[in-house]
Amino acid sequence: MFLREKFKGTGIAIVTPFQEDGSIDWNSFENLIEFWIKGKVEYLVVLGTTGESATIHGNEKQEVFSFVNKINAGRKPLVAGIGGNDTHEVLKGFKNFDLKGYDAILSVSPYYNKPNQEGIYQHYKALNEATPLPIIMYNVPGRTGQSVTAETQLRIAKELKNIFATKEASGNFDLLNQLLKNKPDDFMVISGDDPITLQMIAQGAEGVISVVANAYPLDFSNMVRYCLQGDFAKAKPLHDKYIDVIASMFTEGSPSGVKAYLNEMGLCKNTFRLPVWKVSEKHLQKIKELMKSVS
Q: How high is the mean pLDDT of the chain?
């Protein structure tokens, strides 16, 4: 299966469920994987931001990668989240992690350091030369503090051939216009913003790596499939149905919001690793009301 076929449609940036003591809840994790696969999404992204990757380290990270591969058992393509703001450490991860069963790597642009555009390009160039798998780059300036410009993403797309896609979560339609107009034909643009996925696909994006699909995989993946088929008359009601739900998942931080939904569904505990914390009781009541409205 070609890369475009594997990653066209809906991927989920999956949560990592925890017990009250902060240990990984492996039983809930297995149940969630089965729930997502039954929801007919196209692929799973493991240890991205939504998976609380910032507080999962070393051998435990490997345990998560291996566990998801074991339970998935080849049913869906898998993407491993391996990124950071220290290029050398990312390269060590590329070398040391056992990525058996994985089809690609998602690697976020460097955060906190706020490198210039040449530094971002050189970071991805180093990853391109050392990667064991094809790479999806990830532009999310709301978290990294630094956007990867359209010019830099196009340079990466044209020159670094092991980087086959970008997860675009800037919400900047000027950037998106330039990127979608000028990218190579074989370079994929994937939405990283649930609320504007419909609009991005209308412009030429080829799917989404989603947060809301953790809780509503079937509806959201159907919405994306309708968009990709050009049937926006069927897609728009599903898009509209989840506008307020999506907003509520980010109002008090993510994955705080989506785990509140999953907890109400009985799929995992409403637990995190600090500094992530659960949503307020007031916001939880709003979530409960929204769940009734989309049931």
A: 97
